């Protein structure tokens, strides 16, 4: 099961792009939108908090403002979530003491709970064989399945390879944007 913390139905929000990526990519597991201001989106019941989801959650995709992320990581630990895709920016990459401090805080919180984080500041991850498109790029669900994995720190390079693969019909197994490499 995948929870989307910061899920949105406004097409101008990253939370909407992530929801589209999961739904249009035909993720076979359960998808739990988390947004305290909505009761339903994308035809699914929306939960006000990760902790109010009645079942276990394997992966949390976070698209919330940076200052809300530590609380969400704590909730992930309480819920037993094992992995986070942290799309949110505003951490070490901004070269600001507050961003560095926030990243250190979420890393420590995640390590205490045994959670691995892809990101922060990542476009996400795509596993075409599962299929799981946990990114803010719904088009990557259309990439052909292949035997090559592409892993990059750079979201720009990940996007370039994903869109080139669509144009040239080159298959991938996975496209992974590491972002800031918090702890994974």
Look at the helices and sheets and give the structural class.
alpha/beta
Strand element count? 11
- For the largest beta sheet, what order do the strands appear in spatially? 2-1-5-6-7
Rg estimate, integer Å: 15 Å
- Counting DSSP H or I runs of 4 or more residues, the number of helices is 4
Beta-strand content estimate: 15-25%
Helix content: 25-40%
The oligomeric state is single chain
Biggest sheet overview: 5 strands, parallel
- Which overall shape is indicated by the principal axes computed on the Cα atoms? globular
Mean pLDDT: 96
Low-confidence stretches: none
Gap between N and C termini: 20 Å
Order of helices and strands: EHEEEEHEHEEEEHE
Question: What can you see in these coordinates?
Answer:
There is one protein chain. Helices cover 29% and strands 24% of the residues. The protein has 184 residues and is α/β, with parallel strands linked by helices. The strands form three sheets. A five-stranded parallel beta sheet has the order 2-1-5-6-7, with helices on both faces. Helix 2 packs parallel to helix 3. The longest helix is centred in the middle third of the chain and has 17 residues, at 97-113. It is globular and about 40 Å long. The mean pLDDT is 96.
